[in-house]
Inverse folding.
């Protein structure tokens, strides 16, 4: 994968549970490529924390260590929630992850409203297991399904990564043009950047750290 195409065009930020107004101290980058040259380039910019999308990328822990990076969040798909969840959480914890996020639900699993009711039950179970492992479980909201999930999931077990702050929301997608003031106004505690290229990642880092 080309280093200039391994990132997507948006930004995600972690906010505190009470939306405290704090000075951001943790700035991470969401990754989809894990080769040494990419990780070294990311670290050279100044990033020390990343969010990953492949829990089982070959030799990932060693590659992160060589680059001086840590992964505090991982995005997974629903199959990992159905089978071997404790094992997957163990791998995530070994990488230093604190957030275990269901980042995508297959279209075949979300065709009807009943599917979302059943997914809410699945997320509750996954959230309980994740909490016991010492991590936080969340779901990345992509449509209007949040209503059902908010109503039917346990607030102590299931959080949400969404576009705007709200109940049980730990992440917010910001417009690409959002700067430090917008980030701080959202009460950001920890946020991840997604960028189009290494150059874009550098520009976003400089802007958000200024």
């Amino acid at each position: 994968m080309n280093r200039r195409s391994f990132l997507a065009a948006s930004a995600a930020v972690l906010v505190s549970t009470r939306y405290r107004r704090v000075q951001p101290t943790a700035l991470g980058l969401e990754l989809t490529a894990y080769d040494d040259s990419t990780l070294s380039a990311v670290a050279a910019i100044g990033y020390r924390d990343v969010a990953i999308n492949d829990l089982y990328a070959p030799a990932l822990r060693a590659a992160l260590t060589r680059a001086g990076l840590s992964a505090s969040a991982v995005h997974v798909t629903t199959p990992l929630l159905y089978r071997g969840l404790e094992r997957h959480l163990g791998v995530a914890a070994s990488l230093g992850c604190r957030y275990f996020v269901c980042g995508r639900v297959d279209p075949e699993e979300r065709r009807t409203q009943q599917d979302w009711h059943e997914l809410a039950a699945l997320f509750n179970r996954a959230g309980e297991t994740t909490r016991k492992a010492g991590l936080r479980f969340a779901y990345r909201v992509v449509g209007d399904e949040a209503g059902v999930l908010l109503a039917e999931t346990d607030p102590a077990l299931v959080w949400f990564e969404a576009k705007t702050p709200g109940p049980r929301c730990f992440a917010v997608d910001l417009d690409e043009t959002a700067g430090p003031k917008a980030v701080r106004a959202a009460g950001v505690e920890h946020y991840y950047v997604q960028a189009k290229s290494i150059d874009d990642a550098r520009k976003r880092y400089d802007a958000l750290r200024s």
